[in-house]
Each structure stands twice: as structure tokens, then as C-alpha cells.
Fold these 2 entries.
Entry 1:
Amino acid sequence: QKEVEQNSGPLSVPEGAIASLNCTYSDRGSQSFFWYRQYSGKSPELIMSIYSNGDKEDGRFTAQLNKASQYVSLLIRDSQPSDSATYLCAVAGGTSYGKLTFGQGTILTVHP
Amino acid sequence: DVKVTQSSRYLVKRTGEKVFLECVQDMDHENMFWYRQDPGLGLRLIYFSYDVKMKEKGDIPEGYSVSREKKERFSLILESASTNQTSMYLCASSPRGRKATQPQHFGDGTRLSIL
């Protein structure tokens, strides 16, 4: 059974702090990794894609991938109250017809 | 930008009705997906399609069927709606990746209530 696991939280951080969200996966053949943000009552929105080991930065967001340890993380620098949302980790193998396996999501709350 | 459009944001139907949820994408994506999302259960894949007229069952296909007659349109059908199908339904699409799976892009969702 392919699994993607996330700490459901809630994770609470003060405004301006770094929020660190973690995700582990069980399928060693996984090749594509994505982070989505979902506001309450809204649909998931893609914020980061990462395919290679190491870090990928986009503005205040950094995705980190370690395939040997089978984890992917998302760092949000200078967290803002508008970052309060559920963050979904999604993982895919190489021949999956585009299917993604989603984690349950981590609820992040950024308090002023 | 990718645009995935779901026909309704909110829908109320009665038990036993046949319900159609429509999804259209404008980016010529090969792959399309239908999920439902319920509190505490996360995103669950109902059906997906990787080409016109092709369909594959996801994790929870019972009580649902799909149709993909054109590349841009993927329809979800509740054959005989039941109250346990009250949920948020999400459509997504993605291009066929040459070397790696590409991300999915979601529509706004349809909140379906079955009374």
C-alpha cells in the first residue's frame, strides 16, 4: 500500500516565524513531489513541485527532498496569517497515468 | 494559467436521482481526475482518465460512473444518488509527463448535498 504521511497538526506559529511542514512516503520508486495549499472551503492550489534531491526555493517557500530518507518538507519563511491553511503533500511514481497519492494534510495556523 | 471549470459550485439533489457533474479543462491535458473530499478522510480518488474514452477506477468507484467523450470534458455520474454521497467533489487535470508525473490542477469544486 503506497502511503504518504503528514502530521495533521494543527501547527501553530507566530507571524514572521518559519513554518516547517513534513511529509514521508513509502514508495521508493516515487519521482514527483508536490505541495498544495488548501484554504477552508476551497480547492487545493499547487504551490511547489520538486523532482530532484535538494532544495527548491520560490519566494518565501522552500521545498526540500531527500529520496534516501523518503521525506519531503516545505518551509515557509516570514509566515503570514494569510498562510493559515491546510497543506497537502502529494507523491507520484513514474508510470502512474498522472495519479497522485495525497497525504491527509497538515493544518497550519499563523497567529499575529 | 490552467483553467479547470466545474459546472456548479453548489448542488442539491434528492436520493435516487441521477446526478451529473461536469468538468472542463482548457489546457489540452491528457489526464483528468475526480475526487471527493470529506472531513477527516482527505482526498479520495473516484475515477480517472488518461485519454479520450479511457477510464480507470480509483479507490472508491462504487456508486459512480464517468464519461470522457472529448479530451477537454470529464463527467462524473451518480447513478442513483444516496445521502452518503453528500460531499465536496473536486475535478483535476494534468498533462502527460514525458519523464515525470506532472502536477494536477484543480477546479473550484462542487459541494453536493443529497437530501
Entry 2:
Amino acid sequence: GAVVSQHPSWVICKSGTSVKIECRSLDFQATTMFWYRQFPKQSLMLMATSNEGSKATYEQGVEKDKFLINHASLTLSTLTVTSAHPEDSSFYICSVYGDRAYEQYFGPGTRLTVT
Amino acid sequence: DAKTTQPTSMDCAEGRAANLPCNHSTISGNEYVYWYRQIHSQGPQYIIHGLKNNETNEMASLIITEDRKSSTLILPHATLRDTAVYYCIVRATTSGTYKYIFGTGTRLKVLA
């Protein structure tokens, strides 16, 4: 399997500021990581696919200039929410493919609240 | 990827089997069926997956119909800790990057 951590687990920021969320694969080198967003009582929505050493691939409707993704190493991907607004308040979850290619391993999530 | 349809919610008595259905009528031949669950405010957890044969592991059993248009996840002896949202996902295995598209899921409540 793969163990995935996220930091921070929760964050509160003011409207207009930027916030960075880290996703780490602790025991597995992940060439591909995924970022999801989940609003209360809703399902997970895939935002983007993060590829090590290259640009992320964003899903339709996700603003790439607002949600900056950097996957600089095989164990770390970061999601930066730029110029955050209250509507960006959500639960952000990352995932990686582990050594068993049929499984995605999910991080514990980061709860972002923008005031 | 094929779209999945699941009931919004279900209740199950503790100790009884929980049977969670999923329809995936547009599934294609190379798409696997995956089940994950999400306990409140946590990341999803893998349960089981299958292509066309029934599968069983320490957590659950997966029954896939012969035409593969539907499947059922079975938790043989549900406990209170099984209360969660259960997601049925189909995913192609031949594409370069395998994405999961989550449906609405079934909110299972196990009752004492």
C-alpha cells in the first residue's frame, strides 16, 4: 500500500490571501497524484491530475491559475489556492497510486475555511 | 468512464448483512468496478474491486451480474464502525492515467 499525509489538516485564512496545501506520499514514490475537492454533503470532485516533473492536468471548469499545483518530487505535491474567497471553503483531498496499481490511496484531507 | 447510480441512503441493523447496490449500465468491457467508503471528514478507503467475477476479501464481497451492468457490495456482518458513505466507481485500466469519477454514493447507517 501507500501512506499519504496532508498538511495542514485544517486552515483558516482571510479572503484574498493564498494558502498552500501539501500532499506527501510517505512510503511510495508517486509519479501521479490527484487532487479532489468536496463540499459538505457532496461527493468528491476531481480537480486535477498532478504529474511529477510536468504540468498538472486540470478537469474542465477548474481554474488552473487559481489552483496552482506543483509536483516537484516523487513524494510531494502541493496545491495553492490563490486569492481565496469564501466559496473556496471546502475539504481538499489528495490521492496517489500505490504499489498495487489498482488502488488509489487517499490522504486524510485538508479543511479550508476562508473568512 | 461509465456513470454509476446508487441509492442515496440505506439503514442496516448491526450484525446483519448490508447489501449496497450499484448500477453501471454503460460499463465497457475493460472497466473495473471499485468500491470505496468515506467515514465522516476522512479520506476515502479502498474496499474491493472486480472485473466480472465475484470477489471476496477480509472487508467485503462484491457480486457482479453476468451482464456487468450492476453490482452489489456485501458487508457480511455490519458494525457501527461501518457507518459511512459508500462509493461505487468504474475505471478503465487501459488509459494512461486512471481517473476516478465519484458518483453521489450511498450513505449507510448501521443501527444498534
